[in-house]
Amino acid sequence: MRTIKDSTILITGGTGSFGNCVARRIAAFNPRSVTIFSRDEKKQEEMRRDFPDFQYLIGDVRDYDRLFQAMRGIDLVFHAAALKQVPSCEAVPMEAVKTNILGADNLCRAAIRQGVRTVVGLSTDKAVKPINAMGISKAMMEKILCAQNQNPIETIFCCVRYGNFMGSRGSVIPLFKKQAEKGDPITITHPEMTRFLLTLDESVSLVLRAIEKAKGGEIFVKKAPASNVILIADAIISWIGADAQRIPKVVVGIRPGEKIHEVLVNEYEIRRSVESEEFFVIEPEYRHAAPSNERPAGYEYTSANTQQIVSIPDMVRLLQRMGNAEFY
Fold first, then answer.
1. Residues taking part in catalysis
2. pTM of this prediction?
3. What's residue 326's pLDDT?
4. Where are the beta strands (DSSP E) in the chain?
């Protein structure tokens, strides 16, 4: 069984929300070393205060030579580096191509040449039936990583696909929380919009499962509850103890590239997925013994048909599990 214990680990984009969380979790598994690879020296310096034993490398996944150097002697790679903000990727889509697509190709070539044991790429529900530049580029990241094991190589590549990380930088929960604390109107894009909700700790657990179970080319999906954005806003107001009567909610309209409901497994992928109580594992198209899921034709796993959080107290309990959003 592939484990973290005594492994050398590289986290690309390691100073982001996921990197900080995974660093806290994997430290308990006694890895031989953890290297944080990112292009933000300020965030690296902040992270160094909490994790002084980690190694820190300034670099960009757009730079193949720097990635090749960083992967020398590495066993496991968690690929979290990405441009992930939908509006900015819509404004300059070629920048998303450079980081999310060409960066993924650089990562694969460097990992294979350096003999990395396992590479896990972090993806998003926006990569499924994508309608925006960020989602399209992340869909291509999935394709690039999951195609590698068609060839006889030692490195195992796979992806994990998530809905929203609760409390991650740039996500809706920290935004709503800041607006409510200031007494400003909470900006709702669309009153019927739903979003998957996954704590960062749960996202790390999915990566650990992928490391243990991957044979090559799979996409691992953690089932997660979802909620309407109006309920999320109301729960945040309750959570911080604010006066709901004094904080209006304003509908500002859907941003470019946004969906009303998100999809984690589409109707094409469901046919070749293995489903359990907590997970979907989407097998690669090129694997001969692809499974047949028993869901009806046309079924998709979406934020509209997953378990719904429908009460403010239940949502508040989930926010409490998330912890301090400002940390992320």
1. 126
2. 0.91
3. 43
4. 8-12, 33-38, 55-58, 76-79, 118-124, 156-162, 164-165, 186-188, 194-198, 219-222, 226-228, 249-251, 263-265, 273-275, 279-282, 301-302
